[in-house]
Amino acid sequence: MKFFIDTANLEEIQEANDLGVLDGVTTNPSLCAKVGVRDFEGHIKKICDIVEGDVSAEVVSTTYNEMIEEGMKIAKIADNVVVKIPLIKDGIRAIKTFSDQGIKTNCTLCFSSTQALIAAKAGATYISPFIGRLDDISTDGMQLIEDIVDIYENYCFPTEVLAASIRHPMHVVACAKAGADVGTMPLNVIMGMLNHPLTDSGLTKFLADWDALQASFKS
Ligand code: E4P
Question: pTM of the entire structure?
Fold first, then answer.
């Protein structure tokens, strides 16, 4: 399972990358607004320089021609950039065009299996189903991940299931059990996966016992 960080914050990306387990980055217009990105292409380039893996940068246009023009500019930013496109009619057309040209795409804002099936047929590199936002409206986000994984396996679609809108570490565990190819998550979720109180108390005891042993040799 690949781990992507879901942020446009350069410090957070660097911190996750330093951990050595980061496989890529996803951004969106809201995440760019959160950190006050002014120079979008320059900012995405900085992210692509920090991380070796795929970096999703989202178009903000909604018509086919505009998405192609905007996506082409994004695709030229770096070798590891992925054009992120919303799951709307013109977006599917744009994904098909980019796919035919060998340009990687991440089809975002997926909330149903039917949408995921169409995105795969268009040749999306990644499909991004939003778990947390479905959970927020009393729908089972994890069921959607399981259904898409099953459907893609039935037909050997190469589109990777990128579980998005992950809110907590147990979402990651459920995604891993369901066979999601990628999970994109905020830094606090990545770091939260590390934590266990028994690890902390166990380490404290090991170190105290070691110190006591060393002290016994000196007395
Ligand atoms: C990822 O590609 C999405 O933009 C992101 O995971 C959305 O997460 P949110 O629902 O927490 O905003």
Answer: 0.96
